[in-house]
Structure prediction request, 359 residues.
Amino acid sequence: MHVRQALEANMAAGEEVGCAVSVTVEGETVVDLWAGYADPERTRPWQRETITDMKSVGKSIFALCILRLVGQGRVELDAPVARYWPAFAQAGKERVSVRQLLGHVAGLPFPDAAPIGSLYEPGVVAAALAAQKPEWEPGSQPCYHSFTFPPLCAELIFHATGRSAHDYQRNEVATPLGAEYWLGLEDAQHALCARYIETPGTPSLEGMKRNTASPLYRAWRPLPRDEDYNSPQWRRYAGHGNARGMARIYAALACGGTLEGYEVVDPAVLAEATRPRWAAMDFMTKRPFSMGLGFMLAGPAFSIGLGERNFGHPGMGGAIAFADPDRRMSFSYSPNRMSPVADTGPWATALIDATYRSL
Prediction:
């Protein structure tokens, strides 16, 4: 079964609303498909330029921005974060390194001083993270920083460059590559968005919004409780794009860091970032993760293709992007309906399997 047939089968099953899938090999796009609708009422057909919230897939792009700065000599992996962000040197965080931050071992999964619902208030989350005491000795506990990873990275990028993560990624990654993925949207782009559809029962969603016993609930306290991921504020805050855009970014990574003569990240830095750091039961989600620096690696929780050196990142509800450096291939899938899964999910898995059968 080819990728188109797998997508048609996914749509015929009736659980999908709208989505896109894209694959590159040797930097060239070989699959670029979309199907379904951009709204739950199924009145707006998904278009070539439709974009959607890709959830935590964007964490890898925050990491990529920092890794680019490392390659440029503007940030050092083993330097303390406080070298660039002086206010961070509070409550025992003076020696927390950039490497620990990128590796999800900084011990900072919670922004306890940020009031509930305060996410969109300028500076509140950053100040809470600067004041936060590590939950554990930094470096000692593998813990997926589900909420805090993007704002921690964003502050580091801002203090190292004087530019917001939104501006840095747009100017240094998205625009040079012609990639339709951005860390927060301009207002004019909102019209391109598919309406994101929450699905009750999705494990991470339940933890974030309703299960007060979950560490995810404590971690996501700044998120307004009524946020459905479609508000203008969320679209300005969160990463949005489509499979084509994310596959193009990962095409550069699959090809060693450079695409069409543009070096996105130094190849030695990329090799360091995609080396295994820890493989353990994650504290936050109670799933077995395998982590590099900002990238997830193939492991039991997520199917990231067949390559032993594959790396990428999933997003809650099914979105995913990854690179297969041995095949110099990239893959991405961007749905607008959150699937109630705690792994890669059936729809992305079917497309990934079809991709490898077609190679």
Notes: The first helix runs from residue 3 to 12. Residues 109 and 148 are 6 Å apart (CA to CA).
